[in-house]
Write a structure and sequence with these properties.
This protein is α/β, with parallel strands linked by helices and 207 residues long. It has 7 helices and 6 strands; from the N terminus they run E-H-H-H-H-E-H-E-H-E-H-E-E. Bound molecules: lactic acid (LAC).
Length: 207
């Protein structure tokens, strides 16, 4: 395993400088939408086991397992509290904003609407249109075609380390939003250009 190789695709900018991007593209689940906001429903269904069930369901969702009753709960996921104010500030700065997710179009549109952020997004792109999942480079290329921007003009934000590395490897500037304090960085060749803890940290880091 390599540990300290710098990102060969795009060198890490000076940590003190802002990063020039024209758009920011966000992963959805765990990044914008709080997948643990279904914990209270899980607790109602299985008293005493809500937290464990929500965590297990997230693992299952990543494996693309389908269980209708909980999938429906994903249609109305809450967003993290920093998401709406962060997106509003980024938009006021003139950035174009998008979601690029392994989720289905209907689920993403519904969650964005329910979280009150649909109007802040220029486009919601689902892997459904390429029939491949992230981290395939073909998926990250869809962000470039939808926004009509070079990949180097796009920042990609994800809470998933593998997604950060995938985006960096595909030529986007990746930002890791570390939602879980204990999560260590991935030791692959494409580290994040910046690590943040909330979407509201991003406006000061880009221009
Ligand atoms: C997504 C998952 C991977 O939204 O978080 O693509």
């Amino acid at each position: 395993m390599q540990t300290s190789t710098p990102n060969p695709g795009s060198p890490i900018p000076d940590p003190g400088s802002r990063i020039p991007v024209k758009a920011l593209v966000f992963d959805a689940y765990g990044t914008l939408f709080d997948v643990f906001s279904i914990t209270s429903l899980c607790e109602e269904l299985f008293p005493g086991n809500g937290t464990a069930l929500a965590a297990m369901w997230r693992a299952k969702q990543l494996q693309y397992s389908v269980l209708r009753s909980l999938m429906n709960a994903y249609l109305t996921l809450a967003s993290f509290p920093d998401v709406k104010p962060g997106l509003q500030r980024l938009r006021a700065q003139g950035l174009r904003l998008a979601i690029l997710s392994n989720g289905e179009p209907k689920m993403l549109q519904s969650a964005a609407k329910s979280a009150g952020i649909a109007d802040l997004l220029d486009v919601i792109v689902s892997v459904d249109e390429v029939k491949m999942f992230k981290p395939s480079p073909r998926v990250y290329e869809r962000a470039s075609s939808h926004l009509n921007l070079a990949k180097s003009d796009i920042g990609f934000v994800s809470s998933n380390n593998w997604d950060v590395n995938g985006a960096g490897s595909a030529g986007l500037t990746a930002f890791w939003i570390q939602r879980a304090a204990a999560e260590p960085p991935e030791e692959l060749d494409y580290p994040a250009a910046r690590v943040v803890h909330a979407i509201t940290d991003l406006p000061a880091l880009v221009f």
